[in-house]
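Onboarding guide, step 5: your first structure request.
Type a short instruction followed by the sequence, for example:

Predict the 3D structure of this protein.
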Amino acid sequence: MDPNPSTFAESSPASPSHDAEAVPGIAAPAAAGPGRIVLAATPIGNTGDASARLVELLGTADIVAAEDTRRLHRLVQGLGVTVAGRVISYHEHNEATKTAELLDQVRAGKTLVMVTDAGMPSVSDPGFRLVEGAVAAGLTVTAVPGPSAVLTALALSGLPTDRFCFEGFLPRKAGERASRLADLSAERRTMVFFEAPHRLEAMLRALRERFGAERRIAVCRELTKTYEEVIRGTVGDLLLWAENNEVRGEIAVVLGGAPEQAPGTPEDHVAAVNELVAQGIRLKEAVAAVAEDVRVSKRELYSAVLAAR
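The system replies with C-alpha cells like these:
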C-alpha cells in the first residue's frame, strides 16, 4: 500500500514472474517512459468525496481530458483547484477523432488525466477508446479510484452483494429492451442498471412484465447529494410509486436475481416461448432461450409448443 497516496512519486514495480511478450495472447508490459494516462474518478454528487490524489492531479497534469468542460469548471471551483494544464473536451461524439491526438501527447511524455461528469471514466462513460488505444500502443495507463454509483447503489440496496453484474442503460426501444431483459431472465446475480428519470416508469413496467411484480428491487436517486433517496420494495410497489411521483435526478436501479427454480415439465414453459415469439423472436431461438433458462430439453419443449398450437 502506498504510504502517501497524495503523491505521485515514481517507484520501481516488482519484477514480473515471466516475460509477457513471450506468452501468446498476453499484452506486452507498458512501454517505459514518462508519459501516462490517469483515469481519475470524480464525485458522483458530493464534492467532498473528491480524493486528495484527484485534487493534486487536476492541478499538476499536462492535459485534462474532460467529458464536459463546464462540469469540470464547476468541479475545480468547488475544490479550489487551478488547472494548470491544457483542457480538452473528450466525449462520446469526438472520441473517434480525438483519441489519436491524445495518445500522441502521451507518447511525447505528457501526463493526461481523463475525467468524466461523475464516477470512473470508461464505465458507462467516455474513456474506453482511450484505454484501448493506449493498451495497443504499449502506453502506461493507471487510475485514481474513487466514488462509484454502481457500488454505492449496490451497497445501499439491501439486496445480495456477493455476486452482481452491471448492465448499464437498457435499450430505449421497447422491443430491444424486452429482448435484453429476456436474456437476463435466468440471471441469479443481483443486477445494477442506470436509467433516466423520464424513462424509469417504462423500465419498471418492462421489469414487471419480464420478472414479475414480486421481484425485489431498489431505486437509488441522487446518490450522495442533498436529496438522496433509496426506495426499496417489490417491482410492483416501485412501479406504483413511479406512476404517482415526478421522479427527478440521476438514478441507479438494483434488481434482485432470479430465485432457484425446479425445471418443471416442458408443458409448463410453453407460454414463455409464445411470449418471446410474440415479441418477434423466431420459434427455434425462443425455444432455445427458454430451455436454457429453465433447464429442460429443447427437443421436448419444441414438441410441447407445437402440440399446444
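Each response can be followed by summary notes, for example: The first strand starts at residue 36 and ends at 40.
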